């Protein structure tokens, strides 16, 4: 009886939160003009290959038109693939107890068996479900719980996961996820020094870690009193590592200075990139970085810094915490 009362209470709370969440999603779309994340109404459902060692994704188009119906269809498709060349990322014996929809997030509660998963299967499951659910309109975060308790792995609580938590490469193949502790640098508020920011992400082994660090920097800082390193739309065209040197090729947009009151010194920005590449990838023993813009190093970065040279780590520019 007590367990039934708890389930009825949980269901009531879920219904209230779902109503609030759907209203919040609708308001958010009307006010901000959000673009539906699934072009043409098609979603990518993330599964694993038959060996259970890598993620693959298949297109799926729900028949429902309301948020709750689409969510349920996507979860059903996630549990049971309609093709024999993939497996569900949800291992047998692991149950999704419930989902709770908030204003901009979805909470997924698992059975206690989730905690018995080995690290590879746990990461693949988490990456698959998070990337699947983040396609829903108005959903910016996914939160996992186990029997209504926060998910804790090792001694670390896993909080809400966003599109920056699991980095997915373009293309169809997604190998097993790796954990990366990135050491990023951003210009200080006055633009004269750089400030350190660490960021933990899970990324596919398909990806070059140096490229991952740079692309995370292009997303901008999360902390206060720091500046962006480039304008929105700047792309990393190529990154290669050879014999202890890293070569980075940016699109032309990188030469545009972000519109801020105290623009960062161009040399400061170059060393922010350089330090981040070297400090985030110690296993590659990088000693120098070369930069190109549009495939050429015969150019001055923001009209000041000659790029036809090798840049080494600069500790003097790092601002003390």
Features:
321 residues; alpha+beta; four-stranded mixed beta sheet; three-stranded antiparallel beta sheet; 27% strand
Strand-helix topology:
Layout: H1 2-32, E1 43-48, E2 54-60, H2 67-79, E3 96-101, E4 105-110, H3 119-133, E5 141-146, E6 149-150, E7 152-153, E8 156-157, E9 166-167, E10 174-175, E11 177-187, E12 194-204, H4 209-218, E13 236-242, E14 245-250, H5 266-280, E15 288-293, E16 300-301, E17 305-306
Parallel strand pairs: 4-5, 9-12, 14-15
Antiparallel strand pairs: 1-2, 2-10, 3-4, 5-6, 7-8, 11-12, 13-14, 16-17
Helix pairs in contact: 4-5
Mean of pLDDT: 85
Kindly state the number of beta strands. Answer: 17
Strand content: 25-35%
Strands of the widest sheet, in order across it, are 3-4-5-6
Q: Which regions have little confidence, pLDDT < 50, spanning 5+ residues?
A: 1-36
Q: H/E element string?
A: HEEHEEHEEEEEEEEHEEHEEE
End-to-end C-alpha gap: 55 Å
Helix/strand/pairing category: alpha+beta
Radius of gyration: 22 Å
Please give the count of helices.
5
Oligomer: single chain
Largest beta-sheet characterization:
4 strands, mixed
Measured as a percent range, the helix fraction is 25-40%
User: Any idea how many domains?
Assistant: 2
What is the overall shape?
elongated
Structural write-up:
By secondary structure, the chain is of the alpha+beta class. The chain has helices at 2-32, 67-79, 119-133, 209-218, 266-280; strands spanning 43-48, 54-60, 96-101, 105-110, 141-146, 149-150, 152-153, 156-157, 166-167, 174-175, 177-187, 194-204, 236-242, 245-250, 288-293, 300-301, 305-306. The strands form six sheets. Strands 3-4-5-6 form a four-stranded mixed sheet. A hairpin with a 2-residue loop joins strand 7 and strand 8 (156-157). Helix 4 (209-218) crosses helix 5. Residues 1-36 have low confidence and may be disordered.
């Amino acid at each position: 009886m007590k367990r039934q009362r708890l389930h009825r209470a949980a269901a009531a709370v879920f219904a209230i939160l779902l109503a609030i969440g759907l209203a919040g999603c609708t308001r958010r779309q009307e006010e901000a003009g959000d673009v539906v994340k699934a072009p043409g109404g098609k979603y990518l459902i993330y599964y694993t290959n038959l060996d259970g060692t890598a993620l693959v994704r298949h297109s799926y188009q729900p028949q429902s038109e309301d948020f709750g119906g689409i969510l349920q269809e996507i979860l059903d498709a996630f549990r049971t693939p309609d093709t024999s060349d993939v497996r569900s990322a949800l291992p047998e014996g692991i149950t999704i107890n419930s989902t709770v929809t908030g204003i901009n997030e979805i909470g997924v509660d698992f059975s206690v068996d989730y905690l018995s998963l080995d690290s590879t299967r746990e990461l693949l499951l988490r990456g698959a479900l998070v990337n699947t659910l983040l396609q829903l309109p108005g959903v910016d975060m996914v939160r996992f719980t186990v029997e209504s308790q926060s998910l804790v792995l090792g001694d670390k609580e896993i909080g809400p996961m966003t599109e920056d938590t699991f980095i997915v490469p373009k293309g169809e193949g997604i190998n097993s996820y790796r954990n990366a502790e990135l050491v990023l640098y951003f210009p200080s508020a006055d633009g004269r020094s750089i400030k350190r920011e660490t960021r933990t992400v899970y990324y596919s082994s398909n990806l070059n870690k140096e490229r991952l660090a740079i692309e995370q920097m292009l997303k901008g800082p999360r902390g206060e009193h720091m500046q962006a390193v480039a304008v929105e739309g700047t792309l990393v065209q190529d990154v290669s590592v050879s014999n202890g040197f890293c070569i980075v090729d940016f699109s032309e947009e990188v030469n545009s200075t972000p519109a801020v009151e105290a623009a960062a010194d161009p040399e400061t920005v170059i060393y922010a990139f350089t330090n981040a590449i070297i400090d985030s990838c110690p296993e590659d023993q990088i000693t120098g970085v070369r930069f190109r813009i549009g495939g050429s190093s015969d150019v001055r970065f923001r009209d000041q810094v000659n790029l036809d040279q090798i840049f080494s780590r600069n500790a003097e520019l790092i601002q003390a915490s």
